[in-house]
Amino acid sequence: MDLMEQVKIRVLDYDDLDAIVEIDKEVLGKERPDYWQMKIELSESRSPMASLVAELDGRVVGFILGDASGWEYGVPDTVGWIDTIGVHPKYQKKGIARLLFKEMVTNLKKVGVDTIYTFVNWRDWDLLHFFDKMGFQKGDMIHLELKLEG
Length: 150
Ligand SMILES: CC(C)(COP(=O)(O)OP(=O)(O)OC[C@H]1O[C@@H](n2cnc3c(N)ncnc32)[C@H](O)[C@@H]1OP(=O)(O)O)[C@@H](O)C(=O)NCCC(=O)NCCS
What we know:
Elements: H1 3-6, E1 8-11, H2 17-28, H3 33-45, E2 52-56, E3 59-68, E4 79-87, H4 96-110, E5 115-118, H5 125-133
Helix pairs in contact: 2-3
Coenzyme A (COA) binds at residues 23-24, 27-28, 84-87, 92-98, 126-127, 129-130, 133.
């Protein structure tokens, strides 16, 4: 059977914490359980249909954390956000992130979202390539920063 037919997309659950910590560790090389625990708790209380996992043979191999805007940064509620997306390195380049993204978009459209925002580090080529392939363009918002002394 085609790999994509075996991948199941479902809503992220608190029990997925360990799998997500593991994927993050494989991708970035460090373990951040407290950080992910906070993220998952927040996602469950906000727009649960926008945070999804991809399962292959009962194992979580990828995830996307998204949200519908509640007017953060003055952004209207027709805007949805992608906070993070990650696929286990062993399962990358097989279409799993695309599946997660498509399903999240379908779910966000149902609650009235018509635009998606995300922040990407401009040196993060994997993510930039991926979002480019998904049709993203550079948006009108700009990122400002101030370095604080001492
Ligand atoms: C970016 C990422 C999510 C892509 O996942 P993926 O499952 O490999 O992506 P897909 O296979 O669904 O790719 C979809 C499209 O994007 C393109 N793409 C994905 N990664 C790419 C890369 N590194 N370079 C070039 N194109 C890329 C694919 O070629 C594909 O386009 P195509 O269908 O026209 O060939 C994955 O590389 C990842 O998790 N990177 C780490 C991201 C991160 O730091 N997350 C936070 C911590 S977990």
